[in-house]
UniProtKB/TrEMBL annotation:
InterPro entries: RmlC-like_jellyroll (IPR014710), RmlC_Cupin_sf (IPR011051). It comes from Rhodopirellula halodulae. This is Cupin domain-containing protein. Residues 1-10 have a biased composition (Basic and acidic residues). It comes from the Bacteria. Residues 1-22 are annotated as: Disordered. Signal peptide: none annotated.
């Protein structure tokens, strides 16, 4: 049994008891195209970048986050990667957060913060509620949630869709 909505198929969770699995359904996209050409259009040898012999047209990207020019952001200093990548619908930020992070929210962006290192009393404030953080704690922040980091920390932030500074909004300030 499955239901179809647009280009997605929804399958019941393993075990079949929806009540025990809180009604969560697995999603299988049907509109995803493979990332490789037909076997007759490109050599399937490992020399084209594929260790398993499966041909592909895309090239992996490797970025040294320390080598990216830093930019000011409401939290401190950010180094943003993969903004020009056709293979990733977002950006990755290595952010050094200062003590004076400014509360802000996004109307379109979803962010995932991964704490790499932080002060012992560091926290993240989500809609006015303070939550302690520690290294390797992750926080998913959906659009509309006002947030700010408290204390010094270094974080990786995964932002989707691709970061756009026009989607940084500050409580109490109007922006067109």
């Amino acid at each position: 049994m499955h239901a179809t909505v647009a280009d997605h198929h929804f399958y019941p969770p393993p075990g079949g008891n929806h009540a025990q699995n809180e009604g969560h359904w697995a999603v299988k996209r049907t509109d995803v195209k493979p990332h490789f050409a037909a076997a007759n259009s490109i050599s399937a040898s490992p020399s084209n970048g594929s260790a398993d012999g499966v041909p592909h047209l895309r090239t992996p990207e490797i970025v040294d986050l320390r080598a990216i020019d830093p930019v000011d952001c409401p939290c401190g200093i950010a180094r943003r990667a993969f903004a020009d990548s056709d293979d990733f619908p977002g950006t990755l930020h290595f952010t050094q957060i200062s003590q004076d992070a400014r509360a802000h929210f996004h109307r379109e962006h979803t962010e995932i913060y991964v704490i790499l290192k932080c002060d012992p009393d560091a926290a993240i404030e989500l809609d006015g509620v303070r939550h302690p953080v520690q290294p390797l704690k992750s926080i998913l922040i959906p659009p509309g949630v006002t947030h700010r980091a408290i204390g010094e920390m270094e974080v990786l932030i995964v932002c989707t869709p691709e970061f756009d500074s026009r989607d940084e909004h500050f409580p109490g300030e109007s922006r067109n």
